[in-house]
Amino acid sequence: GIQVEQSPPDLILQEGANSTLRCNFSDSVNNLQWFHQNPWGQLINLFYIPSGTKQNGRLSATTVATERYSLLYISSSQTTDSGVYFCAVGDYYGGSQGNLIFGKGTKLSVKP
Amino acid sequence: NAGVTQTPKFRILKIGQSMTLQCTQDMNHNYMYWYRQDPGMGLKLIYYSVGAGITDKGEVPNGYNVSRSTTEDFPLRLELAAPSQTSVYFCASSLGTSGTDTQYFGPGTRLTVL
């Protein structure tokens, strides 16, 4: 099955700093999503981005499907950005019916 | 819309007990999923459903059962609880006819088996 690797595993930032999180995947995908899991455990969908670039406020994401990676950019980080960021992909070749395969996540801590 | 709701929020079970985790969505989504998240890890798929009456196994189905009698509900059943089933359980749903669509997650159920 598809392998999903996220880097870095841990990241500590000072408030106001920018960061880039990376997601590499081992095969073609038809679905890629970025999630933020807040300190209370809630999973929030940030982007549905199997290809291309999207922006939402201070967050943006780019997926280069042909090179099998996706990047999540966080600009002007805030303490509320703390939590774990997950990349999840769906298998392109069917049979999975939209099942997502999750990476292990990047744990982000933003210090005031 | 309430989105995806799950009950209970927390539960402690003894080894060998049974329980049902409830999941309901009010978005008229076709697809529903159950995942588990172990400490420090990403989520793994237990079971999924592409519509009422249709379910299939995911990556880690052993020890669990599901049913989907309505579009809205997708309960997960643990028959003989084991310590290895201690985890946080998330239910999710998506609209898409092919599954290539945004998944929306419930708040999770934290289960401890002692």
Q: How confident overall, as mean pLDDT of chain A?
A: 91
Q: Tell me, briefly, the overall form of chain A.
A: globular
Number of helices of chain B: 0
Largest interface: A-B, 24 and 29 residues
Straight-line distance between termini of chain A: 40 Å
> Which oligomeric form is depicted?
heterodimer
The chain-level mean pLDDT of chain B equals: 92
State which percent range the strand residues of chain A make up.
Answer: over 45%
Give your account of this protein's structure:
The complex is a heterodimer of chains A (112) and B (114). Chain A is mostly beta strands and 112 residues long. Chain A has strands spanning 4-7, 10-14, 19-25, 29-37, 43-48, 52-56, 59-64, 69-74, 83-91, 100-102, 106-111. In chain A, a hairpin with an 8-residue loop joins strand 9 and strand 10 (100-102). The termini of chain A are far apart. The model of chain A has no long low-confidence stretch (mean pLDDT 91). By secondary structure, chain B is an all-beta fold. In chain B, strands 2, 4, 5, 6, 9, 10 and 11 form a 7-stranded mixed β-sheet that branches. Chain B has a 4-stranded antiparallel β-sheet with strand order 1-3-8-7, with no helix packed on it. The termini of chain B are far apart. The model of chain B has no long low-confidence stretch (mean pLDDT 92). The A-B interface holds A 4, 30-31, 33, 35, 41-43, 45, 48, 50, 86, 88, 90, 96-105 and B 31, 33, 35, 40-45, 48, 50, 56, 58-59, 88, 90, 94, 96, 98-105, 107-108, 110.
